[in-house]
Structures are given as C-alpha cells and as structure tokens.
Design goal:
Four copies of one chain form a homotetramer.
Chain A lengths: L11 E4 L5 H7 L9 E4 L2 H9 L5 E8 L3 E2 L1 H8 L5 E9 L3 E4 L10 E4 L1 H5 L2 H7 L4 E4 L3 H9 L7 E4 L1 H7 L2 E5 L8 E8 L11 E8 L7 H10 L5 E8 L7 E8 L5 H13 L3 E8 L14 H14 L1
Parallel strand pairs in A: 1-2, 1-3, 7-8, 7-9
Antiparallel strand pairs in A: 3-4, 3-11, 5-11, 6-9, 6-10, 12-14, 12-15, 13-14
Helix pairs in contact in A: 8-9
Pathway (chains A, B, C, D): Amino-acid biosynthesis; L-phenylalanine biosynthesis; phenylpyruvate from prephenate: step 1/1
GO biological process, one term (chains A, B, C, D): L-phenylalanine biosynthetic process
Protein name (chains A, B, C, D): Prephenate dehydratase
Chain lengths: 312, 312, 312, 312
Amino acid sequence: MTDAPFDSSLPLTFLGPEGTFTEAALLQVPGAGAMLRIPSTNAAAALAKVRAGEAFAAMLPIENSIEGGVPATLDAISKGMELRIIHEVVVPVSFVLVAPAGVELANISSVGTHPHAWAQTREWFGEHLPLASHVPANSTAAAAHSLLEGTDAFQAAVCAPLVAEQTGLNILAAGIEDNMGAVTRFVLVARPGSLPEPTGADRTTLSIAQPDDHPGALMALLEQFASRGVNLSRIESRPTGQFLGHYVFSVDLEGHIRDARVADALRGLHRVTAEIRFLGSYPRADKQPPLIRPYNSDTAFEDAAHWVQALR
Amino acid sequence: MTDAPFDSSLPLTFLGPEGTFTEAALLQVPGAGAMLRIPSTNAAAALAKVRAGEAFAAMLPIENSIEGGVPATLDAISKGMELRIIHEVVVPVSFVLVAPAGVELANISSVGTHPHAWAQTREWFGEHLPLASHVPANSTAAAAHSLLEGTDAFQAAVCAPLVAEQTGLNILAAGIEDNMGAVTRFVLVARPGSLPEPTGADRTTLSIAQPDDHPGALMALLEQFASRGVNLSRIESRPTGQFLGHYVFSVDLEGHIRDARVADALRGLHRVTAEIRFLGSYPRADKQPPLIRPYNSDTAFEDAAHWVQALR
Amino acid sequence: MTDAPFDSSLPLTFLGPEGTFTEAALLQVPGAGAMLRIPSTNAAAALAKVRAGEAFAAMLPIENSIEGGVPATLDAISKGMELRIIHEVVVPVSFVLVAPAGVELANISSVGTHPHAWAQTREWFGEHLPLASHVPANSTAAAAHSLLEGTDAFQAAVCAPLVAEQTGLNILAAGIEDNMGAVTRFVLVARPGSLPEPTGADRTTLSIAQPDDHPGALMALLEQFASRGVNLSRIESRPTGQFLGHYVFSVDLEGHIRDARVADALRGLHRVTAEIRFLGSYPRADKQPPLIRPYNSDTAFEDAAHWVQALR
Amino acid sequence: MTDAPFDSSLPLTFLGPEGTFTEAALLQVPGAGAMLRIPSTNAAAALAKVRAGEAFAAMLPIENSIEGGVPATLDAISKGMELRIIHEVVVPVSFVLVAPAGVELANISSVGTHPHAWAQTREWFGEHLPLASHVPANSTAAAAHSLLEGTDAFQAAVCAPLVAEQTGLNILAAGIEDNMGAVTRFVLVARPGSLPEPTGADRTTLSIAQPDDHPGALMALLEQFASRGVNLSRIESRPTGQFLGHYVFSVDLEGHIRDARVADALRGLHRVTAEIRFLGSYPRADKQPPLIRPYNSDTAFEDAAHWVQALR
C-alpha cells in the first residue's frame, strides 16, 4: 500500500462511534479501508490509545470552517507525550435526516442529534419541520444508533451520510445544512518517528507558549514567522487553564520543517519562547503551494549560510 | 440604584434556563436582582431580544479559564446590529451533585448534565461513582429541572449551586469540579448609547477582520496595539464561515476607548483593516489597572498633539 | 514678488564668498536677485545673523550627491534657537578652471581650490595637468579671488561657473568634474513663523535624539514613520559630541507637517524620543510627489478620527 | 611580537604626513613601532598600497566624537577589492600650538592648520589670539612641517603633540582644544585572511546597500539586528554617488562574526539586501562587552539548532 502514510500492523482509531464524519475522513486515507478501525469516545481517549501503542494513529477533527478550531483536539495533542500529525483530510460537512422504515416527515415531533449539527440545520427545520424539538446526543452517529435500538425519545436523527449507509436507516432529506460549502479539517496523529517527506505544499502545526504578558509579546512570536516569509494559515489561543488570560497558541503555518525558512523560524521561536511543541509537517489536503519570495527560498538560505561560513 | 450599569424599565435576559451560572453572574450586577429577568435558550436568541428592544441587556458567558472563548457568544455579538458590552462579571465554576429527596449516592446509575460539566467532573465521578453513565442535557440547569419534572432517564444532575438553591433539590456533594480555581467571565451586552465611564481598570472588546492573507498580516494589526503600549488580554481567531482559514479576530485589550493610547490604536486599526467593530469599553471585574509607561500616558499624547498643533 | 518664499526688508545671507555654488543656489530663489545678499564665512555665522535678526534667511548646502550630508550645516541648524527651512534648491556641481588673462594651461604648476573641489576633479587633472600641485583654499571662490588679488601661490583656480562670471577671470576649461550629474542640495533657513503651504510634493526635516542605546532603539524611531507610510529620503547620524557613539539623527521625510500621516508620525515620535526638533516643511525642488496608499491618506486619517470620536 | 595583530615583513602605512594623530594611533599597535611605516597622502592612496601588496595594513581615522564618520575612509574601505579591519585604536584629540624657536605669542598674526583643527580651537584663539587669521593646510602635520621649511605664510601651527615631539618645534600652548574629551577612532585595515579571534568585547563593521526606497526599507535591515539582540554602535548613510538619496549604510555592531547571534544576523541580511560587505570583526579598544540576553547567547542558538535538527 505504497501511498499510505503508514505501514503498521496496529489498528487505527477515530472519534466514534462508527459513521461519524471522522470515520469518513479516515476512510479517505489510502490503505485505511483495509485496516482495523476502532472508535474512541473522545479525542483524549483516541490519543491515549496511540500513546499506549494500542493504535498506530488517531483521526480527529481539528478545525471546522464554521465553528473554528476543535478545542478537545487542540488541547489533547498539545499536552502529554509528544505526537505528530502525519496526514490531513478535508471533508465537506453535509447532513442527512434519517429515520427507521415507516417514519415519514409528518410523524416527526423530536429529532436527535449533536447540538452542533442541530445548530447547522436551523434553516431547513425552520422551513420544513418548524415544530420539531431537539433531543441532544453525544454525536450525530449516536443519535442514529439510538433509532436502531428503538429509542422513543425521538423519531429521526440528523447525521453524516456515512451513517445512513452503514445503518441502513432511510434518508428522508439530504444536504439539509444551512451553510453549503462548510468543511471540516481532520488530522491523523501518530507517535513521532515518521516525518512525511516535503511535497512543496505542506503544513506544519505548532503549539507555542505565550512568552510573557506585555504589549508586543505575541508580536515577538509572529515576527519570527514574518521575518522569514512564513505565512500562518491558522492561529488560535487556547487557555492553559492556569488562570484567565494565560494562553498557548496553536498555529498552522505554510511549509515543511525541512524547508529552510520554516526551520529558521523554528530556531528563532525556540530561542524566544519558554516552550514550543512541534506537532508535525505533512502534506496539505488542498495541495496549494505557498508563495515564496526569492530571498526566503532554500537557495537564499544556503547562499547566506555559505557566505557567513566562508567569512568565519 | 446608582451603582447599576443601567437605568431601564425593560427586563434583562440571560442564557437560561433559570439557575445557570449565567443567571448567577447576572445577579451579581448591582440592581439586577430587583429587575425582571427572562431566560433565553441561546446567545443569539438573547441578543435578538436586546436588538429588538424587548430586553435592556443580555448576560452571556464569553470566556472560560479552562475551555477558552465561548464561540456562540463571540460570533453572536460580532454580527448583526451593533451592540456594546457594558459590564463584566467573573464567576468561579463550582459544581454540585443534586438529586430529589430520597435519592442517595448508591441509587445513582445515570447522571444528567451538560457535556462541559460532565467533562469537568471526570475525576470526582471516577473516584466516587465510577459506574455512573452520562445523559447529555442542553444545560446543567435543564438537567436539574428534568429531575423536578420526574424524568426516569437519570437519577441525579450536575449543576451550579444556584440551581440547587432555586429548586430545593438535595445537594449530595459540592465542589466536585476537577479544576479548583476555574472561572468563567460573563458580559452584559446592551444597545449602543451607554458607554461606561473610565475607571482606570477597564477592558475594551473588538472584532477585527483580518486585513489580508500574507506573512505579517496579523503582525500589522498587532503593531497598532504594541506601538501604543496597549496590552491584549485575549485574542481569538473565529472563522468567518467564508472559507477555511478566513478569520475575524476577537480581541480584549486593557484600557478604555477614552484613554488616549487606546483611542490612538483604534484610529490606526481603522485605517489598516477593512472592518473593525467596537464592542464596548467597561470596568474589569478584577479592578486590575494596566501598566502604562509615561510615553503612553494621556499626558504624553496631549503634549504630542499640542506640539504638532503649534507647529502646523 | 508673489512667488518668493519671503517678504522682508532684511537682507539674505549665504555661505560665501561671492560666487560660491551657494550664492548660485540663492539666486535661483524667486526674488532673491533683487535683495541685498551678504556672504557669511561659515554656516554657524550665517545662522547667527538669522537668529540675531540681521538677515531674513540663510542659504546653506545641506547634502551633496557624492560627499553626503554637510556636517557644518546639519549641526548648526540642529542646535541653538529654533529655525525653519523654508525653501530648497538643487544645483548641479560643475567646475571650471579659471586664470587671469595671459595664463595658459602650459603655465600652470599649482592650482588653488577647496579640497572637495580638488577631490572631485582628480581625473581631469590626471589627464591634462598631471604635474599640477594643489594649494588648499577655504572655498573655491576664495581661490579665484586670490588670483584677482595677484597671489603667486598658484596660477589657476578650480571654482563654480558663477565666480568666473562675477570676476571676469578666463575660463580655461569647463565641466572638469569627474562625476557628471553630481548635485548639491541647498536650503534656505529662516526664523519660525513662515510655514510654507503644502504643495503635494514636500519635504520635512527633523533632528531626533536617539532614545536609548539598546538593540532596536533606532527601529523604534523608524517604526513611527513606517507605520504611517512615511518614506525617509535621507537619514544621517551626527555625533552629539558627548561621547563616541552618541548620536542625533538628521532626517528628511517625504511630506508636509500638514499632511495627516506626517503629523501623526511626529506625534508618535514626540512621545518616544527625549528630544525632537522640527526644522521645517517646504516644497521639494524636484516636485516629485510621494506614493501614498489609501490607508495613509488624509481622508483615511479623518475617517478614523471621526469613527473614534463618535464612539467616545 | 605575540600581541601584534599581524606578522608580516611588509611595511605599514598611515594617513600622513609624519606626526599626525593617525601615526600616533598606529604607534599604539603592539609591534608597529619596530616596523617600517610609510605615510600616505589620503585614505584611498593608503588602501591602494594595501590592495597592491605594498603595505601589510593601513591605519586610518574612521570616526570622530565631534565630527562624526570620516567620509574618505568610509568610502574607500567600502569600494574596490575587499579589505578587513583587524584592529582599532581610540586616541584623545588634543592640540598644541607650535612655532620655531624665537617666535612668541605676540609675534603670531597667522596660524597654519587643517580646517578641522582650526574649527576645534576657536575658543582658545578667541580668548588668546583674537586677531590671528587662519591659513588652511592639508593636515595639521603639514602646517608644522611648513614652519620647519621656513614658510612666511604663517608664524605658528596647530597640530598633534606627536608632531611637536618629532619636529622639535616649540610648544607655545597645549590642550587648546575646545572640547575636552574629544576622541578619534582609528582602524587598521588589511587584506582578508587574518580574522582576529573573538575576545568577548568585539566590534564588526559592515557596509550594506539600501534594499529599496520605500517606507520601512531601512527598518527591514535593522530588524535583522534587533531580532537577534545585536546592538549597533554606529550607523551612517553614505551616498552611493548614483543619485541624491541613494545610500549605502556603514554600520558598526557589537560582537564578532563568530558569535552565533552576529552570524545569524549576517545570514538574514545576506538574504534581504542586494549587497552587503563584511569589513571585519576585531577587538574593541575600550574592551566593553555587550549585554547579551540568555535567548541570544551562543548556547541558545546551539540548542535551537539541535532541536530543529533532531526534528528534521
């Protein structure tokens, strides 16, 4: 399976249960369909399996184009034993309304689903089932599974298309999401040891402790990227939990640690921040290469290094 | 009611139902206890009441020391008709386990609560009720109210102390949160027209569109703060929903728009960003004044303005 | 004489003696030809006349395209009673070789001139009079006047074309300068009180004390210009004389103090530096307008000020 | 001669004639007193001897605490074949008034000296010989030598103490300079090949082409120093001679190219500027070590390099 980002006899895990968007994302990874896939109940549990050597890698949602970063994932990969993102998948977020055989729209008074899914289908329900009430579930897939198990708390569920496929529930309506074009980005997280090769269109993820709480502290970090022409595609501040206003910055940047400008920025960051964690360099799902000016190219860095070396 | 940040015959609203931490926060506002208080089912609904003139102001959670920013609030105050934060309250997050009379620990097999509350009491349950399962609810207060209404889905609920007080449910255990010292910051949001006076220990909240997606774009924004010695106490990137990686920055800074250095930073931002929204200047709950260097004081700004004025 | 930058019954002064490039520059100022013009022996003496009210203004060289800034002028305008540059003239530096009637090239063994003029005609002499020796003079005009007075220290002088015209000495060779295209910039300096109107192509001259001797101190000054899109056309460090490495920066910037971006940069500088001196805003001789981005225009500054004013 | 910064059978040269402050500076270099020393008539001529292999090194004035940078030296070392500064000497500027035997103060009507020396002794002459006129000379030493040769153009000369010693002229007054404490910094310039060892208190001299003429261009250069905590002890803009306002920056920084932070700054500069010239790293005459923060130490750079290397 030469295209697969892994070669392992260990199973894979994902944010379950079966049928979630996360499993759909995992199935897009070359080779994953043929491997054992174990659902985990949350991000921390999935990564615990990886850290313990019980799973080779875990697929987790990291960012949604509507909801933003996924705190549980961002926090779980930034603490504890070091891990590396080795692959990324972007999946369109599209919802279906499912129900057991025999249930029609007219029979639905309550709908089970995850609160996020409910929030993202407000317009469709406002128009088609304005009187339906929401019963919260831990995941969209869990709500669907409850229907299979004969729950009487609700008559239909909002879930990912994959769940309908896996469970055989009837699809009463498809594409019911309010925001057409919404996507979720998922990452496959493994133990260190398998840095993917640079492809020219890569992403690097970091977790950086805020150096100090004074005007310009964040700028001092960002300057390390800007001065090497390294663009940030995502920056999130996550609380450390120590006190209100104390943050760790979760950052995605365009490029690979084997790119000279990225390596140089990381060296600069390592000097000015108390703590920085490298969470991996991996190919971008959209294969979009960054714009690199000549003076930030690998060649420019090499020339500069040679010039100084000769003078020293 | 001279200390109250408002003078209105309209009711107040808050993220309900009754007994939430949000209502507890609202009750800390001088004068709020004597006013009509209407619960809202979510942040958008609460602000809709304010915008429609049906409520004078809405109390909403904006930031938690463990979970970070509250996306629903951040997004709802940044879009639509302009609003202003006029007051802030910080409330310790402490949970109690409640049950109807007659129920004891030994009788509990399922516990109803909001997923966040469940996540923040994992250690206590691991030790005292390791076999209890979680039934998700839309809020901690909703779970408690379900007990009053005789639900048989669970026998106990995790909720705020205020709920126990209001409902008369028995407190089986108090202080069961894993993170002692966790706090949530709440803000009271009204229509423009009532800018609180500067106190010397104020906060200003802004929503700023990212100017452009290139290396240094975020730095160009932050430079406007740093060059005037304005410290940021919170910065969050929230997706605009247009496409992955397109953000609005939600920012809290130390100071009041009537402080010269803050006004000057806002003027600079207005020039360099396509869109900026002022969400209010209001007293900090912790009454902590910022450190201001002499060259960033109001006097320094006035002297500079006079000097240039005389030369022109 | 409506185009003249002055209206005064006082005489003008210039770096003499008569016939220097400086007098040539002064004669280019509209109206100056009709006024009394008094030579001064050096920059300090010329400005002393202005400060004492004995002359309306002094014309002095400030910058040469080959030699750089003119220290005597830069230092004299930066210390003592405040003065303002009100006009600028750029004059091509072209030298002629002059001698009394009857003297031919073959008769010349020594040449009198100012050391700078000698340095800038090395190639011509190397080719045409390789054996001629140099006799230093205090100015090119002084050397020519010595010939008139019958000196026997040298037989010819290198000077400005104006001197040949004024003295009637013979021109043996013209255009003998090594660097075709060299120019000198001259400024007319008066007492405060007559700020020239903005023309859209102006220059502003400042003298700025170095704020502090640490990495980034100079950057903190330059940031005030860069953050408002104000370009510097000249920056020179001049020793304060206190100790080696202690400087005042002499700066020319593109724009007029009545331009909003320039005024804002000056306000910023006034805050961050211990001492700043405004030396005038005046039309550029080359009438070249600066490039101003929309967000640095007067309109952008006005819009920003109105926005903040309305919020306060 | 182990302390000497050179080991050569070639002679040394200096800005002559004999007895100048420059020769005094050269004599302070360990070992120089025992070597052949050839005067040169100007900086360009001195460096031509070094470049041609006729002299091992040239001593030249580079900076004066009153007059600032010495343009002739700055320009001559920045153009043509590459050279390196290998030693620096700081000499107090103190003048004496000398005359042949038999001449007394009362006999003096004209004084020969270099215009700079005349400018720096104005106060003494104003008080003691207010009627004396100035006869310009090419150097202070040249004026003294003219007295020896029996000139009748002036009766006394202002020169360095060394000239009095070498010529045997009488010293009529000593310490006649207006600015007590003025010093001149001299540098010894050789061909590449002999980089002095770091001492912990070093200086590095660079010549850097301005990258581009837009707001912030100079800042982009300075940022390379500031971001590594490298302090500049001198910055001068020298015209390139191409057109008014086109500069090369002559810069002294605190540190040695073998210091990691300096090497890193040079690598950064090499990338962002079209042209940069390294003019040497050499011990500071004042032996003053720079302040280096822990995150800019050699260790911090090594740690950062190892961290990134391990990740790659």
